[in-house]
Amino acid sequence: MGVEGCTKCIKYLLFVFNFIFWLAGGIILGVSLWLRHDSQTTNILYLQLGDKQAPNTFYVGIYILIAVGAVMMLVGFLGCYGAIQESQCLLGTFFTCLVILFACEVAAGIWGFVNKDQIAKDVKQFYDQAFQQALMAESDTNNGKAVVRTFHETLDCCGPDSAMGVITPLWREDLCPKPDSILKTLKTSSCHRKIDELFSGKLYLIGIAAIVVAVIMIFEMILSMVLCCGIRNSSVY
């Protein structure tokens, strides 16, 4: 015997929320894959300075997002099927998966909040080391110049946040694009600022997606429990 009345409305409401949740999982999976293969981040984070690799903390977070998106799509499908079939077992499994996902999202959010400044800081330190090597290099055998030029071309910047960074375009045309005028040189953004903008913008996008998904998950947990209780009560009669 199927559910009736308000419980039936909750059943279809849960199905709609699960479909949205499934779509959100697909969007997160797509966005995370885009962030993983974005030309700006890949050009920078694949760089190698001697034996030292560019910091990969950002990619750790991206791989977590890819896994979360894939799991969300699977759990969303499970919730849709459980709601339509009115299966207490499937709904109970769905609720358990949601609780685990929600706990993982909270843990990932705390980790991201703690490391949000560290990601840009590590990349800036890597750039500063390459910049110093490029200034002192007497030949192109050291790949510091190549690393610095990649930063400058990818982010359209030149030099760090220092007096050395301001005057670099004037005397090191092998590192920075030749300016058309002194005014253009003064307007050139420092690479430190561009690195902050690059990662803060992407982390802001991830944060918005995480908040939206968390709200949907809370509603789904409530609806799944209400529907499960309604199915149990209706089976008595």
From TrEMBL:
Signal peptide span per the entry? none
Q: Does the keyword NADP apply?
A: no
Keyword annotations from UniProtKB, A to Z: Adaptive immunity, Cell membrane, Disulfide bond, Immunity, Lipid-binding, Membrane, Transmembrane, Transmembrane helix
Q: List the disulfide bonds.
A: 157-191, 158-176
**Organism encoding this protein:** Rhinopomastus cyanomelas (Common scimitarbill)
Gene3D superfamilies this protein is in? Tetraspanin
Q: Of which family is this protein a member?
A: Belongs to the tetraspanin (TM4SF) family.
What taxonomic lineage is listed for the species of origin? Eukaryota, Metazoa, Chordata, Craniata, Vertebrata
The places in or outside the cell where this protein is found are: Basolateral cell membrane; Membrane
Q: What is this protein called?
A: Tetraspanin
In the record, biological process GO terms are: adaptive immune response; regulation of cell population proliferation
Where does the UniProt entry say this protein principally localizes? membrane
Q: Which residues form a coiled coil?
A: none
Q: Give a Gene Ontology cellular component term annotated to this protein.
A: basolateral plasma membrane
Instruction: Give the bilayer topology.
Output: Multi-pass membrane protein
- Look up keyword Disulfide bond and say if it applies: yes
User: For this UniProt entry, which segments traverse the membrane?
Assistant: 12-35, 56-84, 90-114, 203-227
What GO MF terms are annotated? lipid binding
